[in-house]
Design brief:
single chain, 174 residues, mainly beta, eight-stranded antiparallel beta sheet, globular
Length: 174
C-alpha cells in the first residue's frame, strides 16, 4: 500500500527545503516544506528497503518511477522520526549526508559515517552553484537519471527522516 501527502505548488527556479518523515510508532508520514508542516497522513505499512539509496527518482513495485526534473542539493537521511522543531532546523545528526559539491566526475561522497561513494546515472549532471556550497545535482526528469549510493542509508522499517534542498524546473513535483 502507499500513502501521499501533498504540499504547495513548486515555484520554478526557487529553492525549497523538503523533509519527509515516517514515524513508525505514531504510524504517520509527514511532509515539511521550508520547515513548515504541509500535511500528514496515517501510514502503517512500513517496509525494509533493500538495495541502493537513490536521489532523483522513486521505486514502486520494482520499477523506477517519478523522475525529478529539478536541481537537488544537500541531501540528509536520519534513522529516526523528527519533531516539527527539528524539521525546521533539519540537518544535524544525519547517518547519510551528501553535500553534492564535487562539481565534476561521476561520483559523490557521504561526509558523515563513511557510506560508500555514490555515482551519477544517465543524464544527471553537475549544476554549478547550489543553494549551499559550491555545487548541486541537476536531474532532467527522465528515466534512468538519478544519483545512487550503493547501500541503504536508513532502515525504512523503523522511523526515519530524509530531506534536501530542491529547485524545481517545473511546477509539477511527483
Amino acid at each position: 500500500t502507499y500513502a501521499q501527502v501533498f504540499g504547495p505548488t513548486a515555484t520554478v527556479g526557487t529553492w525549497a527545503q523538503l523533509v519527509g518523515v515516517y514515524d513508525a510508532s505514531a504510524k504517520v508520514i509527514k511532509l515539511y516544506v521550508n520547515g513548515a508542516l504541509q500535511g500528514s497522513t496515517a501510514f502503517s505499512s512500513g517496509w525494509k528497503a533493500t538495495g541502493h539509496t537513490k536521489v532523483g527518482q522513486a521505486k514502486w513495485n520494482g520499477a523506477a518511477v517519478d523522475f525529478a526534473n529539478a536541481t537537488v542539493d544537500d541531501v540528509h537521511a536520519l534513522p529516526r522520526a523528527i519533531s516539527d522543531r527539528e524539521a525546521f532546523a533539519f540537518g544535524t545528526g544525519a547517518t547519510g549526508y551528501w553535500q553534492l559539491d564535487e562539481g565534476s566526475g561521476g561520483t559523490f561522497t557521504d561526509v558523515t559515517v563513511g557510506l560508500p561513494t555514490g555515482h551519477l546515472e544517465s543524464r544527471t549532471a553537475w549544476a554549478g552553484a547550489g543553494k549551499i556550497g559550491a555545487n548541486a545535482l541537476s536531474f532532467p526528469g527522465s528515466a534512468g537519471s538519478y544519483g545512487e549510493a550503493p547501500t541503504s542509508a536508513v532502515d525504512t522499517s523503523q522511523s526515519f527522516a530524509v530531506g534536501g534542498l530542491l529547485s524545481s524546473k517545473t511546477t509539477k513535483l511527483q
